Amino acid sequence: MVVAVLLGSVRSDRVGERVAKWVIAELESRGHEAVLVDPMTLKLPLLDRMWKEVKNEKGSEHAELKAKLQPLAELYQRADGFAIVTAEYNHSAPPALVNLIDYFLEEYFYRPSAIVCYSATPFGGVRAAVQLRSLLAEVGMGSIPTLQPVPAAGDALSAEGVPLTQQLAEKSGKFFDEFEWYMRALAAERKRGTPTGTAA
Predict the structure, then answer these.
(1) For 2-192, which CATH superfamily applies?
(2) CA dist 163 → 83, 154, 179 (Å)
(3) Which GO terms of the cellular component aspect does the record hold (predicted)?
(4) How far apart are alpha carbons 114 and 5 in whole angstroms?
(5) How far is it, in rounded angstroms, from Cα 176 to Cα 48?
(6) 56-88 burial code (b ≥16 CB/10 A, e <16)
(7) What's the pTM?
(8) What is the mean pLDDT of each run of 10 residues along the chain (200 residues)?
């Protein structure tokens, strides 16, 4: 399976990189191809026009934006699922993550998402995850039932993304098992066709 791992925070002192490294390592240990999508590296402007609105335009006005979005569009078309790594800002998802997600739409359809939320508090970012569920459903990559919170993320993972707590090291299997199940199930159904009458 191919998984796009969307990292939400662009803060200079973010710990989200640790969480994303852990997610990628877990997915790769299960034989999946996990590809990081980092808005800090992409430096996308605030959304003005979506990918579907600029991809066929000629001229240089949107050339830089198209060059950034084209690889993402190609990755998302290959993806079987999306792992969303989100911080919690004011009980909600970071604006950089929302902006990143909003650039696309059809590319997400009939593919599951799995939310890995984190924070510096014992709550592990679950309030952001609850807010995020509605957005993910609306763009067509509804989230699996189980959440994977990472409380006190700076202490729970090393800088290399290695778990430092027994909870994270040993009790996240159900989350990834469930994500795999949804990816396999929806991949099989996409091959058979979708409610829109096309294979996705």
Answers:
(1) Flavodoxin domain (3.40.50.360)
(2) 18, 10, 20
(3) cytosol
(4) 10
(5) 35
(6) eeeeeebeebbebbeebbebbeebbbbbbbbbb
(7) 0.94
(8) 95 92 97 97 94 88 91 97 95 94 97 96 90 96 96 93 88 94 97 75
